[in-house]
């Protein structure tokens, strides 16, 4: 085994003062280039530009409205909406008056919203539509919530009207009084192991991470304009309630990247082609979908064989880049031919301009990392959590090791504890959980390091590799400890598999619950000559099961025999957020899945299922 480090640090790349805040970041960008394009949003079919001056004017008018409605410094305002320009305006308007923003996923249940409203003492809640209003207006009677505003009824217009009599100077005074260590936002975790906890992030947490990223030599070239002055561009389809989405928004304000709003991934390819981003930030499922969709569209016969040859050519070229000798002449030639015949079309489907993508939120398979680098899109896998203001580590241009989540993010230190737990210190680490002294006490060790709950190691070069979660370790009846993430990550790359849950706690062997990807299924069946099937028919069809078994056999090569999947079942429906099986940040909630699919456990273990 190669030597491993116990601790490593990447020093900060930016210098900040106690007087700076997210408000000063916005003001500095405005003063630097007021007519530069901040964002683009679909309006009347096409992407239309929004300048920094327009953003600043909208933020000022909205902030005056919040003052008129009684929001004081330290008060909380909730935002429950999909990714859209108004979200950004509301975010900076609340911050401008010294308020605290509470992001709420627009798919949250009434019970979840009630908890967040109560725990963070939200006074005003801005929601997207009538469905959200019907969900949240009853809370006006049962909590301290005072007002619900609807974006589909021009909430920003109502705030603008309410604040007409408020002087600009009043906003300026409040804005300039906000400091680095002041609370900016309370972000609720997705609650995969219980009730969501409110993560308190300061202006300094967010500003430090953004400024350190923009000042970093490698990341600067990804997000900031080059010598030609042309702005970089990113299309945001993550929810702004997600810590990575919020980080991307702030990064665009500071760096000058143009932010494109894409509230849904249903038309992702069309949006990418229309907006033409130069960099992306996404969860691994997006990258898996790009590959699986391209594979499905390749059809059958010679076309499919050509596509898969091109994929192998891209992957082998990328793998060879990491060797001392580099790609051979044959590998280089194959990649050139593959690019002309196949790979260039995949790049074009992503808009044709993407050079870099940041992946976080879950593990990306090495195969996909190599494939995308092989087509000319370098995926920089990172790692982090809401508690670390999104990235705690990341691969960066010139500092990339596919299969790892990179070296510490600038301004961050990573330590591996004796039991293998990853622990973090740095500018992005949160100040604590809202109203939760017990969680605060257990989340930091005696030296002040944040305990992530993840298991991993640092290689000899200081790159972090994550192997799983301490709370998700499966202990079989034979006493074998199994990290399900290794197997689950490999299997999710299969075009038929929408989601997978590896099981086996206290059982004689490891099994897997497989949910089919219902969007990909019809094309896969057609391409494999099966014909049209219902989901119920497909889950037991020999061709489907054989394909999944081959994928499991490949995944099992990554682990020992005792850790390998011995038996699987295809469940009757997809795992669902509505049923509580998937969190708003797309993480599986294992205890709920196991409870809701007890029949599937019986399929695997029979009398040993309980």
Q: Which fold name corresponds to the CATH topology of the largest domain?
A: Rossmann fold
* Beta strands, count: 26
Structural class: alpha/beta
Q: Quick one: overall form?
A: globular
Describe the structure.
The protein is an alpha/beta fold and about 600 residues long. The chain folds into three domains: about 250 residues, ANL, N-terminal domain (Rossmann fold), CATH 3.40.50.12780; about 160 residues, Rossmann fold (3-Layer(aba) Sandwich); about 140 residues, GMP Synthetase, Chain A, domain 3. The strands form seven sheets. It has a five-stranded antiparallel sheet. Helix 9 crosses helix 11 and helix 18 crosses helix 21. The mean pLDDT is about 95.
Topology of this protein?
Layout: E1 7-10, H1 22-32, E2 37-43, E3 46-51, H2 52-68, E4 76-80, H3 85-96, E5 100-103, H4 110-120, E6 122-127, H5 130-136, H6 139-142, E7 147-150, H7 155-162, H8 168-177, E8 183-188, E9 198-202, H9 203-215, H10 217-223, E10 233-236, H11 243-255, E11 258-261, H12 268-275, E12 279-282, H13 284-297, H14 301-321, H15 329-349, E13 356-359, H16 366-374, E14 378-385, E15 390-394, E16 407-408, E17 412-416, E18 421-426, E19 432-433, H17 437-443, E20 450-458, E21 464-469, E22 474-475, E23 481-482, H18 484-491, E24 497-503, E25 510-516, H19 521-527, H20 535-538, H21 542-556, E26 565-570, H22 590-596, H23 598-605
Parallel strand pairs: 2-11, 4-5, 4-6, 6-7, 10-11, 12-13, 13-14, 25-26
Antiparallel strand pairs: 1-17, 2-3, 8-9, 9-19, 14-15, 15-16, 17-18, 18-20, 20-21, 22-23, 24-25
């Amino acid at each position: 085994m190669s030597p491993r480090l116990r601790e490593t640090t990447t020093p900060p790349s930016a210098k900040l003062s106690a007087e700076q805040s997210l408000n000063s970041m916005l003001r500095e960008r405005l003063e630097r280039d007021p007519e530069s394009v901040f964002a683009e949003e679909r309006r009347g079919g096409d992407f239309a530009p929004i300048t920094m001056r327009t953003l600043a004017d909208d933020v000022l008018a909205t902030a005056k409205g919040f003052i008129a409605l009684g929001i004081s410094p330290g008060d909380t305002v909730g935002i429950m909406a999909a990714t859209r320009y108004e979200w950004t305006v509301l975010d900076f308007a609340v911050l401008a008056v010294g308020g605290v923003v509470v992001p709420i996923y627009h798919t949250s249940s009434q019970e979840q919203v009630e908890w967040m409203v109560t725990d963070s003492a939200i006074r005003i809640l801005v929601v997207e539509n009538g469905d959200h209003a019907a969900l949240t207006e009853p809370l006006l009677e049962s909590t301290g919530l005072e007002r619900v505003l609807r974006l589909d009824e021009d909430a920003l217009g109502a705030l603008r009207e309410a604040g007409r009599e408020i002087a600009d100077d009043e906003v300026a005074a409040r804005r300039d009084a906000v400091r680095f260590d002041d609370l900016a936002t309370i972000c609720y975790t997705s609650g995969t192991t219980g009730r969501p906890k409110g993560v308190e992030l300061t202006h300094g947490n967010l500003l430090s991470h953004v400024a350190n990223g923009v000042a970093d030599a490698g990341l600067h070239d990804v997000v900031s304009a080059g010598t030609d002055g042309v702005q970089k561009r990113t299309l945001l389809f993550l929810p702004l309630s997600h810590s990575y989405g919020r980080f991307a928004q702030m990064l665009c304000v500071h760096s000058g990247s143009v932010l494109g709003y894409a509230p849904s991934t249903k038309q992702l390819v069309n949006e990418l082609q229309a907006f033409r981003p130069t960099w992306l930030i996404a969860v691994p499922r997006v990258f898996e979908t790009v590959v699986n969709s391209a594979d499905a569209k390749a059809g059958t016969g010679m076309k499919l064989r050509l596509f898969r040859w091109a994929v192998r050519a891209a992957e082998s070229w990328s793998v060879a880049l990491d060797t001392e000798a580099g790609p051979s002449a044959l590998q280089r030639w194959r990649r050139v031919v593959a690019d002309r015949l196949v790979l260039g079309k995949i790049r074009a489907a992503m808009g044709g301009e993407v050079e870099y993508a940041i992946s976080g939120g879950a593990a990306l398979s090495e195969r996909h990392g190599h494939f995308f680098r092989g087509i000319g899109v370098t995926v920089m896998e990172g790692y982090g959590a809401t508690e670390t203001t999104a990235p705690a580590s990341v691969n960066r241009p010139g500092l990339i090791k596919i299969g790892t989540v990179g070296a510490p993010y600038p301004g961050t230190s990573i330590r591996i504890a004796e039991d293998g737990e990853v622990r973090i210190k740095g500018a992005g680490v949160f100040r604590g959980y809202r109203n939760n002294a017990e969680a605060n006490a257990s989340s930091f060790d005696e030296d002040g390091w944040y305990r992530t709950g993840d298991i991993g190691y640092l290689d000899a070069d200081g790159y972090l590799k994550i192997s799983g979660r301490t709370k998700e370790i499966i202990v079989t009846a034979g006493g074998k400890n199994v990290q399900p993430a290794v197997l689950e990550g490999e299997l999710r790359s299969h075009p038929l598999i929408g989601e997978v849950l590896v099981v086996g706690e206290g059982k004689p062997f490891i099994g897997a619950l497989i949910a089919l990807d219902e969007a990909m299924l019809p094309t896969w069946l057609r391409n494999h000559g099966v014909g049209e099937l219902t989901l119920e028919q497909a889950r037991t069809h020999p061709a489907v099961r054989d394909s999944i078994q081959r994928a499991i056999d490949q995944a099992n090569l990554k682990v020992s025999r005792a850790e390998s999947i011995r038996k699987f079942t295809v469940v009757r429906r997809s795992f669902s957020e509505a049923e509580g099986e998937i969190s708003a940040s797309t993480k599986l909630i294992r205890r709920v899945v196991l409870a809701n699919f007890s029949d599937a456990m019986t399929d695997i273990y029979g009398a040993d299922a309980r």
